[in-house]
TrEMBL record:
Signal peptide start and end residues: 1-20
Organism listed in the record: Iodobacter violaceini
Coiled-coil intervals: none
Family stated for the protein in its record: Belongs to the transglycosylase Slt family.
Name by which UniProt lists this protein: LysM peptidoglycan-binding domain-containing protein
Length: 518
């Protein structure tokens, strides 16, 4: 039904176009009338965006299935990709820990990436940036799920105030990160270089590209000289992408994720206490802060461009309870201290512990005397148990956490869903991998081999689940340079020379010849 509507819609638009210029003969794409014509998923997404009332995009019950259809970034140097495939596959608890941490946010990120028509690999980037932790902070003070440095965050509109840190705000930081990546893609026209610029900076990448151009060398990611961190950055992402694309080939089991939103955003239009917002949303303070890690004080300071994030199921309750609420929304107030006032005495006057007063206001533990600064104090004296629980949750929310890299997870050999294959005459690593829904890098990883040579009679472990790797997405393009031979390229990429020739159907190469390598 969807296909017939799509075909009819496009045919109708073509017909309308023919009336616009009666002198010009109508040029029709006759495959629109071919009953066997099968539009691709990206065609449906485009049509859905333009004509959502007429045609709906493909629906997926599982978010991973939706994510897999959007992978488009080409593969690259399999040695580095294999290294990181092995790293993550040998730490399945770490991989699933990342996914569990990112579950509240992943649907939102996927949706935003899809809206912009970006490669779906981008939605996985927080897995290697912060392990999907909005409170993560690196040793160089990059913060949040997307790991923005203070200056870069400011460049992309991520505000930092005493009340709020936009780098930790999942919604604001996601928008800023995608803006950054789109800008870099516009500059380089290559997603691998755009990703490298996210880690290394666009100026550094542009300088490396210009240096190679001047030396008549290649200008793809794999060709550039760069720091080790950046050299491994894109392979890390592609390794995670490959595991998500075919987890069974790596012995990894991924928890199914529902393809539906976990949270919704709304603008409340009023300042209010964190505790009050949680009560109105009928949600624990800890959960409210998990979804709003950018708010770092007891008061949620309202601004037009800031959103309050709530669980989808709690939005209606929040709106109803807010409309009916007849108590003060704010129970904290600013207080201008006098030079020389004692924090101990101030705390006693407002019914809080001195340690609580200092914690709320980022006052050093050894400071005893005020210096005329503005601080936040309760409007009423005395804090009840729930107030103190809120302050404890806020302190935890404000605390910076190191990036979870999985380095402390003990690696172990993955329990692979595998079978055995005996190599026979005519077999190559490429055709064996294809037969079992794998790529050559995965076959090498499963068998712990350093190259792609196979011998007659050799027993190989192969995937027992022949889930095909998306067609055309496991190869990478290589442009031959002067002096290249099939043998030298095969040695560089650790593939059989016979396979390289077979993949490309070529008997000879010269500078500029485009080759595909699997």
């Amino acid at each position: 039904m969807k296909q017939s509507i799509l075909v009819g819609l496009i045919s109708g638009l073509c017909s309308l176009g023919s009336y616009a210029d009666t002198d010009a003969p109508a040029k029709l794409d006759y495959q629109l009338h071919n009953p066997n014509f099968d539009p691709q998923d990206d065609t449906y997404r485009t049509i859905d965006a333009l004509f959502s009332d007429v045609v709906s995009a493909p629906e997926y019950a599982d978010l991973w299935a939706r994510v897999r259809t959007g992978f488009t970034i080409p593969e690259l140097d399999h040695q580095l990709v294999s290294k990181w495939e092995n790293y993550y596959a040998s730490r399945p608890e770490y991989l699933n820990r990342i996914i569990k941490r990112g579950t509240p946010y992943l649907y939102y990120v996927v949706n935003e990436v899809e809206k912009r028509g970006m490669p779906m690999e981008i939605a996985l980037l927080p897995m290697i940036e912060s392990a999907f932790n909005p409170r993560a902070e690196s040793s160089v003070k990059a913060a949040g799920m997307w790991q923005f440095m203070p200056a870069t965050g400011k460049d992309y509109g991520l505000e930092r105030t005493w009340w709020y840190d936009g780098r930790r705000d999942v919604v604001a930081a996601t928008s800023a990160a995608l803006d950054y990546l789109n800008s870099s893609y516009g500059q380089f026209g290559d997603w691998q270089l755009a990703l490298a610029s996210y880690n290394w900076g666009p100026t550094a990448v542009a300088r490396a590209v210009a240096k190679n151009e001047a030396a008549n060398l290649g200008t793809q990611f794999i060709d550039l000289r760069m720091p080790d961190e950046t050299r491994n950055y894109v392979p890390k992402l592609l390794a995670v992408r490959n595991i998500i694309a075919n987890p069974g080939a790596y012995g990894v089991t991924l928890e199914s994720l529902p393809n539906k939103p976990y949270f919704a955003t709304l603008t409340v239009g009023k300042h209010m206490d964190v505790k009050v917002a949680a009560e109105l949303a009928e949600t624990p303070v800890e959960e409210l802060l998990r979804l709003n890690p950018g708010f770092i004080r007891p008061v949620i300071a309202y601004k037009d461009d800031r959103s309050l994030v709530l669980p989808v199921a709690k939005v209606a309750a929040f709106q109803k309870n807010l409309a009916d609420y007849d108590k003060p929304l704010l129970n904290w107030q600013p207080y201008v201290t006098k030079q020389g006032e004692s924090f101990e005495q101030l705390a006693g006057a407002f019914g809080v512990a001195a340690s609580e007063l200092k914690e709320i206001n980022d006052i050093g533990g050894r400071e005893r005397i005020a210096r005329g600064q503005t601080i936040l104090v309760p409007k009423i004296t005395g804090l009840d148990v729930s107030d103190r629980q809120t302050l404890t949750a806020l302190a935890a929310n404000r605390a910076a956490e190191p990036v979870d890299t999985g380095a402390n997870d003990k690696p172990h050999a993955p329990v692979l869903a595998s079978a055995e294959h005996r190599v026979i005459k005519g077999d190559t690593a490429y055709n064996i991998a294809k037969r079992y829904g794998m790529n050559v890098a995965q076959l090498q990883a499963m068998n712990k081999t350093a190259d792609a040579q196979v011998q007659i009679g050799q027993i190989l472990r192969v995937s027992a689940r022949p889930e095909s790797v998306a067609a055309g997405k496991d190869g990478r393009e290589y442009i031959a340079k002067r002096g290249d031979t099939f043998a030298s390229i095969s040695k560089r990429y650790k593939v059989a020379t016979a396979d390289l020739k077979k993949w490309n159907g070529a008997k000879s190469i010269q500078a500029g010849t485009k080759l595909v390598i699997y």
